[in-house]
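Same chain as my last thread, 237 residues:
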Amino acid sequence: MSTSTAATASTSPYTTPAFWERLWRQSGIHFVVFFIIAYVIYGSQPQPGAPADELAAFYDGHRTRILIAAVFAGMAVLNLLWFAAAIRTALADAGRGGWGAAASASSAVLGALVLLLVTVSAALAYSIAGSGNDTVTSGLNDFSWACVVLSSFPRAMLIMAAAFGLWRAALISNTLFAVGVAAVLLVLLGSTTWMSDGFWAPHGAYSRFVSPIIGLVWALVVSRVLLSQTPATRTGW
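reply #2:
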């Protein structure tokens, strides 16, 4: 009985290193899907300096929705970290482990920052916004917007690590490398969105839509590149 079970397990495609490596290389796509779901469910967060009644209406009035979004955001972070691990492995196979290490480091910082943002929003929705402490609620809401702007740095580093690493490993063309460099610069511009209102504000269109979309599209591009490569034979997965 045990011999038969072991034989079945050894021949199952789900127990092979190639299956797991391909799964991790798909995690960039999974990250994008979970991020979009979380973003849509979460809704439009009040801007910095919003009045107390608007903050209460959002965080306390949409508590369940925000907490559900937190779960999907957490899943997005998990897949982001696996995605960076797949990038590092692919670059290490190509002899560019330094850029792979940069991808791992930047994804860890970005993941921690996203979890911090999720924690702040979940805490506000769970109890803080409903406690009547308007000063704390307003301060944490403004803090989360500042974190969104500053997240431009680890996002840009992750894009740069993948772009330069894959290019140096001859896994992408010069044209795609140029696109990656442009994406790095455009995402870095998001760190300057400190206007009080309008397109270039922390809650403006560039910070909320343009910069994140650039990062998501690049994640899909890199996932496609990784999936097009033949995984190396290894037991590490």
